[in-house]
Design goal:
312 residues, alpha+beta, Jelly Rolls, seven-stranded antiparallel beta sheet, three-stranded antiparallel beta sheet, 9 helices, 10 strands, binds 2-oxoglutaric acid
Length: 312
Amino acid sequence: MATPWTGDDQEWWDWYMTLAHDADIAPAPLLPGPRSATGAVASDREVTEALAAPYALPDEAVAFFGRHGFVRLPHVLAPAVVAALARCADRLLTAAHGTDNPGRFLALEQLWPREPLMRSVALSRRLGDIAARLLGVDALRLYHDNILSKEPLCGRTPWHRDSDHYPLDSTAVVTSWIPLGEIPDAMGPLACLSRREAARALSGLPASPHRRSYDELVAARLHEAAARPVATPFAVGEVSFHASDCFHTAGPNRTTAPRRVLSCTYYEDGSRIVDEPTALSGAWTDFVPGVRPGEVAASALNPVVGTRAPAS
Ligand SMILES: O=C(O)CCC(=O)C(=O)O
């Protein structure tokens, strides 16, 4: 794993998803996906304004994140904003991959430099400030943005924590997970394990998150300890944030509709690229271009997007 990844980001995800030890799921019967939204769709200007507006983040949510390493926040986005983002994601995914991708996990990254609506999300003051307050740091930079589409029949996302993936020397790293519609159980909602449960069940794991046996071992240890992640369905507008030490997985998509989310990762300003990024860091040089191992991660593609001070 010491060798860097040489493929592109989609090739990385294609490989990564094979690390789920029970990746294959029975082909049928698939359940119908949630009913498509029929309400209003926000205009581009409305999306940008909504994503620039402050969110009233309760102190209890910050405390919950500190204790557990993740938090789910309700009503971060209005349904009309979600509908507009879902429409944009659909257009981009269809242009890149067509419409028939059973069993695949599709990822599009670094969209914000070229797509105005994706820029509203990636550079969102609302989301960036939430992330900075959750981590308790003064300023956060963007690592990358993503559209993630778990297509019908795609299996589990392997158990992992992001600190094994990002080539950053900081523990102050957080990722948003923004559903582009309702995500019922059968679609594979993100499932986060609390820090307490991870400490109880997973201490001393071998450092081999690049192997299928790692996912299997995590699942077996959790089963043995009767430790369970929070894996409940997501409502429209709800957004989850997870810290880089949060163990997480997601179930298979057993529905006829793709499970789609936007996701942005942020890190504390001043963080550096580690000395030896591994293949688990995937196409990291696309996200921090021109920055070499050991240097401060602050390229032109890593703007400061969140501060702890409440937005005025
Ligand atoms: O969407 C998924 O299934 C996995 C996402 C993930 O691992 C992450 O956002 O860190």
